[in-house]
Amino acid sequence: MNFHAAKAFILDKLEQELSEDLKYHGLHHTLDVLYTTEELCYLEKVSPYEEMLLKTAALFHDSGFTINNQEHERLGCEIARANLPGYGYTSMEIERICGMIMATKIPQSPKNYLEQIICDADLDYLGRDDFYDIGSTLFDELKAYDVLNDEETWNKIQVSFLEKHSFFTPTNRKRRSPKKQEYLDELKEIVANYEKN
Fold it and tell me: Can you give the pTM of this predicted structure?
């Protein structure tokens, strides 16, 4: 498989075709997930071959947004199936990659270890120092698509989301869960204040 050529193809496609309204799901998010996937592969001691599959899935996981913001995971799999054979990926490899892409659909549902890694990479920011910065880009994106428009609703959604979410890999449970809990406690306090007013 020619990973580097597939990477060049998909990064160019994302750069050209993603809407500017995608404040969160832009090219920067794909690159962040790719970087975090590499980090997790190193820390979790993933084999080089499986790391290549994971990195390919990371690059394609939100490519469906070039078509539509609904069901983008399924559309991303269609893009992967249409293009990856041209880069020497076998049908079995592509199906594994599509399994990883589909696992990132919210609520996340990984069925194996590699799918757990990409899920953790996709939502790594939930336990990082840039949580509020990245969260605000998602809020802006949801506003742009008329999904919601006020901060109160957004903060309630964040509380609900953080309560249901859990990291899968030992690495992220250790390095991200404590900080994520801090953010949840802070947001719960903010939401509790809405109810007092």
Answer: 0.96
